[in-house]
Structures are given as structure tokens and as C-alpha cells.
Sequence to fold (99 residues):
Amino acid sequence: MNKGELIDVLSDKAGTTKADAAKLLDAFTATVIETLGKGDDIALVGFGTFSVAERAARDGRNPQTGETIKIKASKVAKFKAGKALSEAVNTKAKKKAKK
Fold:
């Protein structure tokens, strides 16, 4: 599903216009970006938690030359699925496997 398709589904489920659904989706993504940028977490009970993790500096390899390179330490965005989301995904996967 791409952003346009998600906006269509959101507008149908919320009974709102596509323009309003697009504004809400944009506001949600902007809020997640701003909050994670500050180093804070966002916990949506049952859905999951957005957080920031530190990635340590490490050695890597250039795949074209095989040369060893230094990769700097960085911060990365993480998402951990909540219990309800995990159960819903697993239930759908089991039903699909039975078919």
C-alpha cells in the first residue's frame, strides 16, 4: 500500500474527505519525525512504539572493492510492534497459510 492508497482507506474509514485524511496523515508523520528528532518515544498501546536507538561506530566493507571502511556512529528510528498488532498479523498469516 502506498501513501495515496492509505489516504483513500483512511478517508473511507473515518468518513472524511481525502484532503482531510491527507492532512491528518501528514500531521501524524510530522509529529513522529519531530518527536523522534528530540529523542523522545511515542507509545501507542496495542499498536507499537516508535523510538530512537544509538548505532555504534563500526567497520564495514565496500562491496565493489572489498576495502575496509569506517562507518560513523548514528541514531536510527525503530518501531516495535505492540501485542495487538503482532497478534493480528500472526492470525492473518495463519489463515493465509491454511488456504
Q: What stands out?
A: DSSP finds three helices and five strands in the chain.
